[in-house]
Sequence to fold (534 residues):
Amino acid sequence: MGLLISTAVLVVAAMLSIVINRRWLPRLSVNYVSMLMGAVIALIPVVNGLVEKFNSEIFIGLIVAPLLYFEGQNTRLNLVGRHVGEIVSLTVGMVALCAIAAGLGSHVLTGIGLPLAFILAAISTPTDATATESVTMGRVLPRREQVSLKLESLFNDASGIILLNMAILWYVNGYVNYSQTLWDFVYSAGGGIIFGGVLSAAIVYVRQLMLRSKLNFINNTYNNGTPLKVVYLMTPFVLYFGAEAVGVSGIIAVVFAGLVHNAEGERSALANPQLASDIHQMVGLLSDLLNSIVFLVLGIVLVRITLDRSVSYDGSWLWVVIGLVLYLANLVVRYGYVRLAHRVPNREAWIFALGGIHGAVTFALAFTVAETQVRTADFNLVLMSESWLIILSLLVPTVLFRWLLPKIQVDVDATERLARLREQMIETGVQTLWTLPISQEFKEAVTFDLRSQNGHTSIKQFFGEWRRMVRHPEYTPEQMRELVSIYRQFFQVERTFLLTQHAAKHEISEDLFNVLYREITMAEMVVLEYGVSE
Fold:
C-alpha cells in the first residue's frame, strides 16, 4: 500500500510540474520545476510522509529502465553501428581515465583512503541520458556533440557499475583483482548485449506473429491492440530484471532492446495504424511522467539528506570539496580526451565536457553503497559528495551554455501565420457546412465542435452543449452515419483549403503545413473511431 500511495503522489506531482512549467515557467526546463516540486514535497511533513524511502533497485528497475528503453528505441541501430569505435572509446577508455583522475584527485587533495576515493570516482562516471535537456533548453546543441552525448550516456552505466563493484571489493578486501574486474566487465556488458538482443528479438517475433497472422485480419483477434500494448509495456521490465537475475547488465539489456525495436516500429506502423498511434502517445505520456518523476525524486532525496542530521561526515565540509574535485576531474578529463583522442575542436570539446550531466543513475549507485560493507560514515560522505556533484553538473552548464550555445530561433511570424490559416481553414469548412441540406441541430452541433479546434468556444458554450447532449435521446445508427458523413465532408474541405493555400501561396513552411495536416487527420480519426464504435 505504501508503494502505491508513493506512486500516486509522485504521478500527481509530476503532472503538476509539467502544467506549471508549460503554463507559467515555459523558459525553465521542466526538470528544474520537478526538482523544486520534489523539494517542496520533502519540506511538507504530511506529504513527505506519504513518499516511501528511496530504494535504488526499484528506482532503476521501474523508472530508469523504461526511460532508457524508450531512449534506445528513439536511436537507430545503424547509428550505433557506425559509432561503435567512438562508443567503446568514450564508455571504456574515457570512463576509466575519469575514474582514475577523480579517484587520485580525491585521495591527494582530501586525504581520504584510495578505496573510498575510487568508490566516489566510480559513481561519478555515469552520465544521464534524460538530463541533458534540462541544461540545453532553448539552445542549439551541435549535432555531433548531441549524438556523442546520447550514445555515451546510453552505454556508460555498465562501466560505472563494474568500477564501483571493483572499488567496493578493494574497500572490503584490501586489494584489487584486476583480472576478475576485466572479466566482470566483459561478462556484464557483453552478456547484457546478448541477453537484450536475443530476448528482444524473440519478443519482436512474437509481436509480429500476433500482428501479422491471418487469423488477426480475419477476426480482429489482436487488432484492438491490448495484448500487443501489454507485451510492449512489459518488455523493459522483463529485460531489466531478467538480465539482473542472470548477473548481466540490465541497463545495457534494455538499451540494446530499444535499439532492436527501433526498426520494428518503423516497418510495422501501417500493419495496425491505430496500435502504432496508441503506442506513440503512450510512450510520450510515460516518458514525460517518468522523466519528471526522476527529478522529483532527486529533489525529495536532496532535501531529506540536507535535513537528516544523521547524514553527515564528522560535522565537516569535506563532502563539498570532494564533490567539487569529482566534478572538475570529470570535466577536465572529458575535455582533454575528446580534444586529443577524437580531434574535436576547442569549443565543441567544452560543450561535450559540460554536457555530461549526472542524475538518476549516479544517485541510485550512491544508494547501493549502503547495501555493502562500507561504514556508515563513509556512506554518508559518498551520498553527500555525489549529491553535490549532481547539483554542480546541472548548474554549471546551465550558466555556461548561455555563452557557448546559440539560442533556438523562434519564428513568431510563422506562428501567427499558422494561427491565421487555421482559423481561415476552419471558417471555410463552417461556411460549407451551413450550405449542406442537413438539420439545424446538426449544423449547430458540428459548428461548435469545429470551432473548438481553434479554441473559439467558451466554457459557457461547452456547458450549454453538455446540457443539450444530456437531455438528447441517443442517436440512431442512421443519424450517426449521417453525422460522421458530415464531419468527413468538412474535413475534406479543410484539407482541400490547406493544400490549395500551400501550393498556391506558400504562406507556411513544410513543417507548419504538416502540423495543420496532422491536426485534420487526428480530428478525422477521432470522429471516425467514435462513429464506428457507436
